[in-house]
Amino acid sequence: MDAEVSLRVDGTDHRVTVDTRTTLLDALRERLGNTSPKKGCDHGQCGACTILLEGRRVNSCLALAVAHDGAEIVTAAGLAPDGELHPMQRCFIQYDAFQCGYCTPGQVVSAVAMLREAEAGWPSAVTLDGVAAGDGSRARLDADEIRERMSGNLCRCAAYANIVPAIEELARR
């Protein structure tokens, strides 16, 4: 069965007809031609397909397009409107935080969202006591905290030695 859905992707409105079993990842890549999110595992385990859905990071391979009719989606490409790189993208370049680059769009989108989550006081498994209490304090984004918060994004090339410092750089600003 097919359904028509409206999606706002990287600032542009789209109306597309999809099979009701179509994931956001497949709708983005196959129906809209947006190849920024990558199809890695297709099971929500690698994070290569990470997008911002209504401002929150989501593995797009696990979300059905019909469940998000009217949604606002931002991909790594949408973080750089008019060719001006997002500060996180610039940090990834500065720190050479990629090798093959396949996971990079998902890593960058996830890192942008992770910084917002930390700023909002969202706890993690290594967050200091008090942050989760909602007292307005922020988690200290050291390497351990960043690794924990980015653990849903895998890099087959093991570029973590550069990914973590790239994120730390922007977190310090």
Report on the structure:
This protein has helices at about 25-30, 85-95, 105-120, 145-150, 160-170; strands at about 1-10, 10-20, 50-55, 55-60, 70-75. A five-stranded mixed beta sheet has the order 2-1-5-3-4, sandwiched between helices. Helix 2 (about 85-95) crosses helix 5 (about 160-170). The chain has about 170 residues and is an alpha+beta fold. The protein folds into two domains: about 1-75, Roll (Ubiquitin-like (UB roll)), CATH 3.10.20.30; about 85-170, [2Fe-2S]-binding domain (DNA polymerase, domain 1, Orthogonal Bundle). Strand 3 and strand 4 form a beta hairpin. It contains five helices and five strands. The chain is globular, with a radius of gyration of 16 Å.
Question: Mind sketching the topology for me?
Answer:
Blueprint: E1 2-9, E2 12-19, H1 24-31, E3 50-53, E4 56-59, E5 71-74, H2 87-94, H3 104-119, H4 143-149, H5 160-172
Parallel strand pairs: 1-5
Antiparallel strand pairs: 1-2, 3-4, 3-5
Q: Biggest sheet: strands side by side, in what order?
A: 2-1-5-3-4
Remind me, CATH topology of the largest domain? DNA polymerase, domain 1
* Helicity level: 25-40%
**Biggest beta sheet attributes:** 5 strands, mixed
Q: Count of DSSP helices?
A: 5
Task: Give the low-confidence spans.
Answer: none
Distance between the termini: 49 Å
Series of H and E elements: EEHEEEHHHH
Measured by DSSP, the beta-strand proportion falls in: 15-25%
CATH level-4 homologous superfamily of the largest domain:
[2Fe-2S]-binding domain
Q: What is the 3D shape?
A: globular
- Supply the CATH architecture of the largest domain: Orthogonal Bundle
CATH class call of the largest domain: Mainly Alpha
Mean pLDDT score = 93
Domain module count:
2
- The secondary structure category is alpha+beta
Radius of gyration: 16 Å
The count of strands amounts to: 5
Protein name: 2Fe-2S ferredoxin-type domain-containing protein
InterPro entries: 2Fe-2S-bd (IPR002888), 2Fe-2S-bd_dom_sf (IPR036884), 2Fe-2S_ferredoxin-like_sf (IPR036010), 2Fe-2S_ferredoxin-type (IPR001041), 2Fe2S_fd_BS (IPR006058), Aldehyde_Oxdr_Iron-Sulfur (IPR052914), Beta-grasp_dom_sf (IPR012675)
Keywords: Iron, Metal-binding, Oxidoreductase
Domain 2Fe-2S ferredoxin-type: 3-79
